[in-house]
Structures are given as structure tokens and as C-alpha cells.
Amino acid sequence: MIELEKKESIYYLNMNAGENRWNTSFVREFSKALDEVENDEGPGALITSSNDPKFFSNGLDLDWMQDPESFPERGDREVFGEEFMYLMGRIITLPVPSICAINGHAFGAGFMLALSHDIRLMREDRGFLCANEMQLGFKIPRPELALFRHKIPANSFFETVQLSKRWTGPAAFEAGIIQGIGSFDSLPKIAFEKASELAPLAKNRDLYASQKEMLYGENAAINLNHGPAHMLKNSKDFER
Question: How far apart are CA 185 and CA 170, in angstroms?
Fold first, then answer.
């Protein structure tokens, strides 16, 4: 489901559950991988990717959400929302640079995962980024809106959250949603080069994490109120 490997100072987190749809079991396996990263020390950077050539993450596990009793191995439906939101907040404030290699479609929760990383790289030839909640008949929660507002330039924000625009790699790069594009074959190399460049920034992990908290946490420096990491980690306080 989730594989984590470290080579020198780079952590490689690979999602290998097909379309990588989100349920409680998937959240908890991802969280265990982050535990390993957070409990380590010294310079480092995380690269998150998928082994499916079509999907990075296709969003929520809708079959399970609609009928959780038929899929007990996928976890407790009642705790999913809070645990998923908290996980996204953890990724935002990870104490090492994080790079997301988006090698296929990233919809809904998958798009959130991508945005929670420091750097986003995407295939130039295939795949869409899309917040498809409006299409599915869901209202986007406030913590998620805060995440999108912080990570997406203002002129593209409304198209993304209200109009469910599907962004190709080149269009997302031009809009400033991602920081780089490449072919399917070149994407791992581009991600590795960026991770190697940024890994020394985490030599002092406490410092790297504390500045992220200033940017995205409680009473965030670039907010009038709280940042998306704080809101995601405390999602029950921001349901309306």
C-alpha cells in the first residue's frame, strides 16, 4: 500500500495501491511512513510518488465511503475525515523538504496531497489536477479551502475550487500551481535532483519545521487568522 525507502539523505515514499484512493487504512499506512521520516535526524528530503503510470491518486475511496460495511479492511469510516485532514497538515509541516512527483491523475484528495508538499512536479504529457468536489456534489471544507488558497495563485484559485478546472501539467506550471514538468521517464530524475538540492536545508530540522509552522500553523504569519496546517489538524473546529 505504502512503501518507504531511504537512500543516503533522500526518502522515497511510493504509493502502490492502484488508483491510491483514500480510506482510513490508507491514511494510517501513510502516517506510519511519516513517523519514520519525522523520527530520523539530519539533512533529508522526501519524494512522494505512485507506481501506477495513470494515477497519482484518484481521490476518495467512494465505494468504501458509500458502503463501509462491505469493505471492513479499509478502516473505520467515522474517523476518516479528521485523520485524513490531520495527515495533510502533517505533510505541510514536515521537518524536511517535500517533493511530490505527480506521475498521473491527482483528483480531490490526491490533489490535496500534492498541494501539501513543498514542491510539486508533474508529467507534461498525461494527467490532470482537479478539485472535483463540486462535480461529486460535495462542499469543500474550510481547512481544504485554506490549503488551496495558500498553494494556488489567486487568479487560478476560483477556477480550481469553484469551477473544478482540470489542469494539465503545462497549464498548471504556467499557472504557478506546480514548480516543474517533465516526461514520465524524466520525472524521477528531476525529483531526485530537486530533493538533493533541498535536503541540506533540513540539517536543522527543528528550524525548518518551525518556520513552516509560522507560515501555515496557528496564527500564521501570512494569514489574518490561522494557516491551513493548523486548520487541517483541527478540522472539527472549522466545519462551518
Answer: 16
Q: Which pLDDT tens digit goes with each residue over 146-180?
A: 899 989 998 899 999 999 999 999 999 999 999 99
Instruction: Report pLDDT digits (tens) over 202-212.
Output: 999 999 999 99
What residue has cell string 482537479? 130
Instruction: Look at residues 90, 53, 77 and name the one whose alpha carbon lies nearest to residue 234.
Output: 90
Task: Tell me which amino acid residue 171 is.
Answer: A
Domain around 160: 2-238
CATH code where residue 139 lies: 3.90.226.10
The alpha carbon of residue 151 and the mean position of all alpha carbons in its chain are separated, in whole angstroms, by 11
Q: Residue 7 is which amino acid?
A: K
Q: Are 163 and 10 in contact (CB under 8 A)?
A: no
DSSP symbols for the chain: -EEEEEETTEEEEEE-STT--B-HHHHHHHHHHHHHHHH--SS-EEEEEES-SSEEE--B-HHHHH-GGG-GGG--STTHHHHHHHHHHHHHT-SS-EEEEE-SEEETHHHHHHHTSSEEEEESSS--EE--HHHHT-PPPHHHHHHHHHHS-HHHHHHHHTS-PPBPHHHHHHHTSSSEEE-TTTHHHHHHHHHHHHGGGGSSHHHHHHHHHHHHSTT-TTSSS--HHHHHHTGGGG--
Into how many domains does the chain fold? 1
